[in-house]
Amino acid sequence: MTNRSWNWNPDLRVELVREYVRKHFPSHSLLDYALAVEKVTTEKKDTLTLNVDGCIAVSFVDMLRDSGAFAREEVDEYIKIGTLNGLFVLSHSIGFIDHHFGQKCLRAPLYRHPADDIFSLAWLAYRWSGVALGIRKYWEANRKRTYQQKNRCLMLLCYS
């Protein structure tokens, strides 16, 4: 364990969000709670720090709750229906698009992970559920299909 103050985080983005929230938000009770949890987890293992997505999420909830623009019930409803998940999907989609254009500018192909590795991981993840049996039966019955066809059907089986 290194000798450092408990509120240090190696991700500068977390530090920037934390300082911004402390300076500009009237209340930051959830952020304080997340940082207290981080203190406990980093005592066990110093790499178990608050990540930037978690920091933004608790800060966003603090902002919604304390902005005065929403009733507490409205804030709870927004959280319940997954509004924050939509924001994170949007931000990660922008990053994916940037990665795609970056690869195109470099005239490099997009990285494709070997399909066999993905399917073996899916099998391990679902082997104890009924989905695993369905995937295995489907895979064995349709060996001649392309990987794209199998992947499409695999996603349908897993998410239906």
Attribute tags:
mainly alpha; 0% strand; disordered N terminus; 2 domains; single chain; 8 helices; 160 residues
Q: Indicate the structural class.
A: mainly alpha
Order of helices and strands: HHHHHHHH
State the end-to-end distance.
45 Å
Rg, rounded, reads 22 Å
What percent of the residues sit in helical stretches (DSSP H or I)? over 70%
Quick one: how many beta strands? Answer: 0
Which strand-content bin applies to the residues?
under 5%
* Average residue-wise pLDDT: 77
Biggest beta-sheet profile = none
Question: Any idea how many domains?
Answer: 2
* Coarse morphology: extended
Summarize the structure.
With about 160 residues, the protein is an all-alpha fold. The protein contains 8 helices and no strands.
Written overview of the protein:
There is one protein chain. This protein has 160 residues and is an all-alpha fold. The protein has two domains: 12-80, no CATH class; 115-159, no CATH class. The chain has eight helices and no strands. It is extended.
